[in-house]
Amino acid sequence: MRQLKVVVADDNGLAFISDRQVSIAKALEKVYPLARHGICIHHLLNNVISYFKGKGLAGLISKASKAYRVVDFKKTFAHVCISV
User: What's the pTM?
Assistant: First the structure.
């Protein structure tokens, strides 16, 4: 991450998407404290399928991840919260 920071400056408009590996999260906290860190939808869906089997959440999570408007995301995510 330190080598990357030579060419990509820390900024609050910067976002990293990963599989939420602990070592990546720690490195980002140290080297890019201003940047945001998100989880790849592929990895998130795998976790949802593994931990919430049979609850129908994967479809809702997928739909929420594809929402273009915040209001659409919030509406879909509200159904996720009800289902858990």
Answer: 0.68
As a whole number of angstroms, the distance between CA 45 and CA 51 comes to 10
One-letter identity of residue 68: Y
Look at the block and give the residue holding tokens 């991450």: 1
pLDDT > 70: what percent of the chain? Answer: 100
- The two three-digit tokens of residue 12, written as one number: 């609050």
Q: How far are the Cα atoms of 12, 17, 33, 40 from residue 24, in angstroms, in the given order?
A: 18, 10, 12, 13
Region of residue 13 (left: phi > 0; alpha: psi -120 to 50; beta: else) = alpha
